[in-house]
């Protein structure tokens, strides 16, 4: 069981954009890592774009399972995991991350934010904490 990416996006009008993301591409060949990370970013944006406000879904993309949650306020989260990772845990993680993100980052910053301008440092620790499928403690 493995998590590869955890991202927070904003489904605005007219497009979806990435606000913050964390990746674990350590299991891939060194030379493939940047293209795999780009693929995950692109796939996350595409899935959010195709999902309605207030929806949750799990989408199979190649050998990955992408879990998406788009809140009614346009804030969205995507977890990309292997197919063995429990779906329920992914949605619990997305709920937690989006709630915390919306408390720490002003809604005014969502439409214009980017990974460089948004200050939210918890994604990397959530990605490693949930790496084994269940949070430790």
UniProtKB/TrEMBL annotation:
Coiled coil: none annotated. One of its GO terms (molecular function) is SNAP receptor activity. It is found in: Endomembrane system. Keywords: Lipoprotein, Membrane, Methylation, Palmitate, Prenylation, Protein transport, Transport. The keyword Transport applies. InterPro entries: Longin-like_dom_sf (IPR011012), Longin_dom (IPR010908). It is a lipid-anchor. It comes from the Eukaryota. The keyword Electron transport does not apply. Pfam families: Longin (PF13774). GO terms for biological process: endoplasmic reticulum to Golgi vesicle-mediated transport; protein transport. SUPFAM superfamilies: SNARE-like (SSF64356). One of its GO terms (cellular component) is Golgi apparatus. Residues 8-127 form the Longin domain. Belongs to the synaptobrevin family. This is YKT6B protein. It comes from Nothocercus julius.
């Amino acid at each position: 069981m493995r998590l590869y990416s955890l991202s927070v996006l904003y489904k605005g009008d007219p497009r979806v954009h990435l606000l913050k993301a964390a990746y674990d591409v350590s299991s891939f060949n060194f030379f493939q890592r940047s293209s795999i990370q780009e693929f995950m970013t692109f796939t996350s944006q595409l899935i959010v774009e195709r999902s309605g406000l207030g929806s949750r879904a799990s989408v199979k993309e190649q050998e990955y399972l992408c879990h998406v949650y788009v809140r009614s306020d346009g804030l969205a989260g995507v977890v990309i995991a292997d197919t063995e990772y429990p779906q329920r845990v992914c949605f619990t993680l997305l709920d937690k991350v989006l709630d915390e993100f919306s408390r720490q980052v002003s809604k005014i910053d969502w439409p214009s934010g980017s990974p460089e301008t948004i200050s939210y440092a918890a994604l990397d620790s959530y990605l490693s904490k949930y790496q084994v499928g269940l949070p430790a403690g």
